Amino acid sequence: MWQPEIEAGPAPFYERLVHAIASDARRGILAPGTRLPPQRDLAFRLGVSVGSISRAYVEAERRGLVVAHVGRGTFLRGVSHPVPDIPARERGVQQGRPGMIDLRCNTPPPVPLMQELDRALIQLQQRGALDPALHYVQGTGLMPVREAAARWIRESYGLEVAAENLIQCNGGQHGIALAFSSFCAPGDTILCESTTFYGAHVAADHLGLRLHGLEMDAEGIRPEALDRAALETGSRMLFTLPTIHNPTTRTMSPARREAIAHVARRRDLLIVEDDAYYAYSLRPPQIVCFAPERTLYLVSLSKGICPGLRLAFLALPPALPKDRLIRGIRALGYCPPALGALIFMQWVEDGRIGAMAGAIQEEASMRWAMTHAALGDFMAVPGAARAPHAFLPMAALEAERVRARLLRAGVEVTPPEASAVSREADTGLRLCLGAPGSRDELAAALQIIAGVIEGRGGADRDGIV
Q1: Largest CA distance in the chain
Q2: Banded model confidence at residue 70, pLDDT cuts 50, 70, 90
Q3: Cβ contacts of residue 160 below 8 Å, gap of 6+?
Q4: Would you state the pLDDT for residue 48?
Q5: Are 246 and 432 in contact (CB under 8 A)?
Q6: CA 352 to CA 332: how far, in whole Å?
Q7: More confident residue, 161 or 50
Q8: Contacts for 128 with CB less than 8 Å, ≥ 6 apart
Q9: In order of start, what are the domains of the chain with their CATH numbers?
């Protein structure tokens, strides 16, 4: 059985595997006509996901190295050309392939914002307010920015938050890492939904923390599962996305949020409430409303306004000590960046941020309607009138097969295993509706997805229909 030697390097794993196939073919280790190992077998032996192997096989076929036969497998072609190098554009940061429609990145749908950016910069310059962008910003962020954030949270989220209890973060991911690292030690367990935001996986893994997935129902975390896991694991932190959960789109009812807060209080849990998608929802009361003394409430501009500003705010319970968080700020980035924060402040002060958010929500509604019309019953029913992502529930193996077919057909989606925390995880495929640059591109992707799910989209790499 062929065992490839995968070179180390910053390029994505699938690219390094393609290079190994080409290299071994060139050196005669793989003869023309050799059947490559089934995806699942090779994934097990290399300790990677099936999705990574699937993508490598698709890329190898695109480059003419292999050919796939339905029901038989993937076979090496004759190789007479030089070994293809890893493309320079894919050294380091992974990007989508040319011609592919990429539905992996959960961003707000594109609307024209450049004019708003220009206007804000001109206004800041005229006011003489750009100077902080050239210097270190100490501590928890500029007070005028945090005052603007308190106003924005009050007007957009319905929460009264004191500016002095806000910490300016370099995006939502920084806020999650800051909360995890400030209140957990290596080896600690963090409770979360059985399938959760991929960024929480990354932060926990980097910090040496364990995620413990909790059983979910149609509303999200079951309170009894939280109570039982808190007792059994000794965990002191819960990370949750109660509104338009990523990836399943579920939303907790007010009663469920209150029940979660009650368990957290009884078990002395600190709650990190990630409310990245609140603007897309019917705006239920947040968990922080039921447990203000123990909830770190995280809001971000990345999912509802502009991801490029890298700006989020962590609202702290008034009595929570800030010293560990301030040390964390210094350790993870030394200080909050100022330029994007000043632009945000200007948008809040002149009232433009509301109009920008409205335009994004309108586009999101149109894209959601398109997706529902194309996929209908295949989609999970979201806990809101719309969502920036759709979830297609299906068994784990079927999700892997569908993803492989989509990859061959020109659509990339998030690997199904990226969000799973436990064996009880709700499995399926997430579609990020804001990622395509236009509605036409999204429509093309939806047509392909519908065809693949309905059986009109071909076969897997290993010939499994």
Answers
A1: 70
A2: low
A3: 154
A4: 84
A5: no
A6: 31
A7: 161
A8: none
A9: 13-95 (1.10.10.10), 114-350 (3.40.640.10), 353-453 (3.90.1150.10)
